[in-house]
User: What shape does this take?
Amino acid sequence: MRECGILLPIFSLPGNYGIGCFGEEAYRFVDFLKEAGQKYWQILPVGPTGYGDSPYQAFSTFAGNPYFISLDELIRQGLLTAEECREAKLDSVPAPGIGSKIDYGAQYERRLDLLRKACRRSTHDQEQAFLDFCRENAYWLPDYALFMAVKNAHGGASMHTWEEDIRTREETAIRRWSEKEAEEIRFYQYLQFEFSRQWNRLRSYAREQGIRIIGDIPIYVSDDSSDFWAHPDLFQTDERGRIRKVAGVPPDGFSADGQLWGNPLYDWEAHAAQGFDWWIRRIGKCIELYDVIRLDHFRGFDECFAVPAKDTTAANGHWENGPGMRLFEALKERYPDLSMIAEDLGYVTDSVRQLVTDTGFPNMKVLEFAFDSRDSTGRFEYLPYNYGKNCVVYTGTHDNETLAGWLDSILPEEKEEVRAYFDVRSEDPLEFVEKMIRGAMSSVADLCVIPLQDYLGLDNRARINHPSTFGSNWTWRADKEQLSPELAERIRSLTILYGRI
Assistant: This one.
């Protein structure tokens, strides 16, 4: 079936208290999607974020971000007062013309204080639902809660700076810290319970309205995460548990030194020896959260670019084999109806293409890439006339410029190519944007996903992420007024016109 959806991170939702969450505006956005004739809501990873605020560098691949817990819901439960929430001064920073911006410093400094009050006043530890939640998530929750408690006791410092005994999880150290930080551990267990309760309610509402959630998981985990801390044997480490190799991207025409991501690389043979149990559990958690899973950096499952951990750039890295189909065969055996999207963007080899084909997963097409003259050959696979049906087309993703911003930054000859391809008759940037959205919608791709910023015609001030930069990413929020009935009707008309409803 031809279908379509909208890309909007949870944190970009409008609403009270400075960041998008599982509150009333999330339900209104589901209603907006239904009115607009959409079938999918694509979000970004929902894990707990730290320094840099990136959802792709979370403290746990299993846990949820406590910032997304609705404070209004806690007020309704009688655990907080409206006055307490107002006094916390969590409002977004106004950004006239585009919406607003998240102040993550305020969220970090003051939102957790409110959540601690709610936890102390809650009787969750007397509820059977909480006990069931802890039992069902015993594979990761105790490790995560202890990890966060120890991290807080060290002033938020990276686990690599902790004392050797707790960094390496010596049994006596685990027992000592568990007793010492018992109250803090219970707090982090409560946060995950409340996150799960609120998210499940929202997801159930979306299903009732015919909206499916596309989630997103990074291929790698952070080096400062409970995942790496609890399972160092699943990563390429030395005898002291120190990281030997990290992930990155090789030098290319866009970056002379490549990109140094810094994530610890998996020991794929160790995973295979355990029957890929960790991955089966990870994907199982995703299936609890989402209807479809977008798997970031899919080519890393074919080959990964390995960089010595001591290096400061990716220039000296080399390619190593990934798990290939062995992993996906194990996942499909456990989850026969597994629904995934393969993010195969960037330099794609024949072996990566074959892996995508063998899995049967739809891959991704990004219209902006089709007009990048720096890529003399690869860009043509992103032109709509080269698509197969089993793919997902985007105007751009969270890592790209908005369409309006991109059109303002490309070379004149590239813009003329866009004009010719989409038959743009004026100099109005909004006509360029509209025609490119139509180009994506009219393509043969089974699924079309458009970022909300492109429907709104917003420039790069509303960009979600500029890779390899820090300080201004992951902050854009929509205003309630932008999600108007008129916009819903305009999107619905396009959806009907191109047979996606």
Remarks:
- The two ends are 9 Å apart (CA to CA).
- Residues 3-129+363-497 form a domain with the TIM Barrel fold (CATH 3.20.20.80).
